[in-house]
Amino acid sequence: MPRSGDIIIARMQFTDTNESKIRPALVLFEELGNVIIAGITTNLKMKGIPITVREGAAQESVLKLNYILTITDEAIIKTVFHLNTEKKRLVFAELGKRLGMLDE
């Protein structure tokens, strides 16, 4: 069962086609087999929260809070590592700020 803060490898379907790709992602939460994730990229020019090799990433990466989607738990291939508490707090604080923009 995926947990909030897990970095996973999962099969993600593109929104505009029936094709899918295997990509890393952060589990935000899981409920009833639906897993809400945020995408991760190795394109360090993209905006987001850095995830380092020292933290467990295979290579320096960026967590993209502007790329959130739902997958099923069957789409998860494996869990790679779990974010430390400090990084999880940073992620959820930043996500809260972005969602707070809806109040404006």
CATH fold annotation: SH3 type barrels
SSE arrangement, N to C: EEEEEEH
How much of the polypeptide forms β-strand, as a percent range? over 45%
Number of helices: 1
Q: What is the helix content?
A: 10-25%
Strand count, sense and barrel status of the largest sheet are:
6 strands, antiparallel
What's the number of extended β-strand segments? 6
Low-confidence stretches: none
**What number of domains?**
1
How are the secondary structure elements laid out?
Layout: E1 6-13, E2 20-31, E3 34-41, E4 49-51, E5 61-72, E6 76-82, H1 85-100
Describe the structure.
The protein is of the alpha+beta class. The protein has a single domain (6-103), classed as SH3 type barrels (Roll). It contains 1 helix and 6 strands. It has one helix at 85-100; strands spanning 6-13, 20-31, 34-41, 49-51, 61-72, 76-82. The chain has a 6-stranded antiparallel sheet. A hairpin with a 6-residue loop joins strand 1 (6-13) and strand 2. The longest helix has 16 residues, at 85-100. It is globular. It starts with 5 loop residues before the first strand and ends with a helix. The mean pLDDT is 92.
